[in-house]
Amino acid sequence: MLSLLRRQPIKPAKTAIVANNRSYSYHDLQEASHQFASILLEDRADLLEARVAFMVLPGFDYVRTQWGIWLAGGIAVPLCITYPLASLQYVIEDTQAEIIVVSPEFEPVLKAYSELNNIRFIVVGESQTQLASVLPKLEPTRRAMILYTSGTTNLPKGVVTTHANIEAQVSTLVYAWAYSDQDTILCVLPLHHVHGIINVISCTLWAGGTVEFLPNFSAERVFDWFTKTALQPVSGLFMAVPTIYFKLIAYFDSLPDEQQKALKASMTTFRLMVSGSAALPVSVMEKWETISGHRLLERYGMTEIGMAISNPYLGERRAGHIGQALPGVTIRLVDEQNQEVAPGDAGEIQVKGANVFQEYWRKPDATEATFTADGWFKTGDVAVQDDGYYKILGRSSIDIIKSGGYKISALEIEEVLRTHPQISDCSVVGVDNEEWGELVVAALVVNDTALDTSLLNAWIRELMPAYKVPRQYLIVDDLPRNAMGKVTKNDLKKLF
């Protein structure tokens, strides 16, 4: 990431960011980032990896705050803007943040807390200072960012990445997905996760493109942006999670035919559309291709590694598969004894590369436990290699159900259930059972309340072996999800 911060933009007047109906050039961004670094430094020459927690609305202020923290030598700690105080407090206290930065909208949320705990408090836009004449010299090994895992099984862990880690994650994707200064991308993702920070913002700005922000998701506004962007001499990009594509499809289906035709014509002008952060149902991929003309590029990544595996930008994008290892990333599949599995057998994904994070913040035991003795990062995700492409079977702790001596992929069952005409979405989990070890059960979001689960059971028995068929069904209004749209399966288990 240091290369991006240090270099002069090739076209300083080119638009870097569009937010709140205003455009900001690369020159504006660099000046504002330098200005904010000066504010953070005050009388110091270097923040020396001081943690700076920031709760800033998506847009120009977010990027200049993050860049300013890096330029001043600090560690950026993005806070989720929808979290309650208790969750924010956990991150601030775990990182031992020395400074808290907020948009004016969030001043009431954290000001009293910061005063009570004697933490320096900065409201974006209020402080002004002279530009620091000299900014600290930063080495690539310097810690740059701490992002927190979702914490579905225990307390969230702070994932520490260095400037070198971030630069590897960004430069690899820029090459693999052919980012350029002609690209314009819409950011609709939360910015306390790697997907939005790296794939959307950092990669686009690294290439000299333009990032446009939509702070609050609206299917109508996304389609309006598609239409507007198609009329410009730019290369349109769009990246989202499966839940967003699901919502866009539902909105598109509600529109009259003429409007659908116009939108499809707009979307076909785009260069690339990507899905990630959760498994992409094949049904969603196929439906989106029908309405947009785009076969979504599905990829695989984590907070700890950025992106590691991807379907090709040029070449076959295989439905139900996450693709092949990205350049500079090494992948292997291993069994429970940490031995590499034979081709075609399922195993845990392990990763090596410059993209892999440095450590879990202040958790040396957890850090040691997640790496093998020879330095492979253990993802906990189980996959199989299918004719050169990796296919995710699930997360070993939650998506691989051990029932009656079988290892069953919950994701495989979900794919089949989603093809039923009366089911709009679903999630499959294993619940403890004395006889079977775990019992396969399914939560269903239906579009027809007259669904007969006994008939559903007969239907699915014709499509998969009996041992994979759910033993219990639960009809719900919606599935519990985290900020990235992933179903929180431990919350779901409690419903059974």
UniProtKB/TrEMBL annotation:
Protein family (similarity comment): Belongs to the ATP-dependent AMP-binding enzyme family.
Sequence ranges assigned to domain AMP-dependent synthetase/ligase in this UniProt record: 11-361
Coiled coil (UniProt feature): none
GO molecular function: medium-chain fatty acid-CoA ligase activity
Organism of origin: Spirosoma pollinicola
Protein name per Swiss-Prot or TrEMBL: Long-chain fatty acid--CoA ligase
Keyword terms: Ligase
Lineage: superkingdom: Bacteria
Family matches, as InterPro entries: AMP-bd_C, AMP-bd_C_sf, AMP-dep_synth/lig_dom, ANL_N_sf
Transmembrane segments: none
GO BP field: fatty acid metabolic process
